[in-house]
Amino acid sequence: GIQVEQSPPDLILQEGANSTLRCNFSDSVNNLQWFHQNPWGQLINLFYIPSGTKQNGRLSATTVATERYSLLYISSSQTTDSGVYFCAARRGGHTGTASKLTFGTGTRLQVTL
Amino acid sequence: ETGVTQSPTHLIKTRGQQVTLRCSSQSGHNTVSWYQQALGQGPQFIFQYYREEENGRGNFPPRFSGLQFPNYSSELNVNALELDDSALYLCASSYLLTGSSYNEQFFGPGTRLTVL
């Protein structure tokens, strides 16, 4: 199956700093999602981005499918950005069924005052 | 639009018992997937249900089973509970259209299962 690796595993930032989280995947994908998991365990959808670039407020993401990586940018970080960020991918070639997402091990972000 | 809901929120069982977890999919979605998340790890795919049939399974033993109902809600059943089954169980719903690669998944808040 597809392998998903995330880096860095841990990140500590001061409020206001910018950061880049990376996700590498081992095969072509037709689904690539970024999630933020809050302290209560809820996975919050950030981006659905199998290719291209998207922006949502202070967050943006870019997936370069041909080079098998995705980046999540967080600008002007706030303490509420703290938590674990997961990248998850679905191997390409599957259409309509068997929508298994393979998750990375996450990046744990702590934003301090 | 109603999001994905799960019940119960927390559950404590003893080894050897059986448990049933429930999930209601987001309005308009026809597919439910279940994931297990052990402490400090990313979620692991258990299985998916589409049109009331299991449609894809991860590396989990047969004592993990499920159902999908005509309203697209779903149950996850785990028999003969083991200590290692202690985890957060997440349900995700999505809309699958045959022949389409679009498959954004939306997750519920999870059920935290503790096996003693």
Describe this structure in words.
The complex is a heterodimer of chains A (113) and B (116). Chain A has 113 residues and is mostly beta strands. Chain A is 0% helix and 58% strand. Chain A has strands spanning 4-7, 10-14, 19-25, 29-37, 43-48, 52-56, 59-64, 69-74, 83-91, 102-103, 107-112. In chain A, the strands form two sheets. In chain A, strands 2, 4, 5, 9, 10 and 11 form a six-stranded mixed sheet that branches. In chain A, strand 4 (29-37) and strand 5 form a beta hairpin. Chain A is globular. Chain A starts with a strand and ends with a strand. Chain B is mostly beta strands and 116 residues long. Chain B has strands at residues 5-7, 10-13, 19-24, 31-37, 44-50, 53-57, 64-68, 74-78, 87-94, 106-107, 111-115. In chain B, strands 2, 4, 5, 6, 9, 10 and 11 form a seven-stranded mixed sheet that branches. The A-B interface holds A 4, 30-31, 33, 35, 40-43, 45, 48, 50, 86, 88, 90, 92, 94-106 and B 31, 33, 35, 37, 41-45, 48, 50, 55-56, 58, 88, 90, 92, 94, 96-101, 103-107, 109-110, 112.
Question: What is the topological layout?
Answer:
The complex is a heterodimer of chains A (113) and B (116).
Chain A: E1 4-7, E2 10-14, E3 19-25, E4 29-37, E5 43-48, E6 52-56, E7 59-64, E8 69-74, E9 83-91, E10 102-103, E11 107-112
Parallel strand pairs in A: 2-11
Antiparallel strand pairs in A: 1-3, 3-8, 4-5, 4-9, 6-7, 7-8, 9-10, 9-11
Chain B: E1 5-7, E2 10-13, E3 19-24, E4 31-37, E5 44-50, E6 53-57, E7 64-68, E8 74-78, E9 87-94, E10 106-107, E11 111-115
Parallel strand pairs in B: 2-11
Antiparallel strand pairs in B: 1-3, 3-8, 4-5, 4-9, 5-6, 7-8, 9-10, 9-11
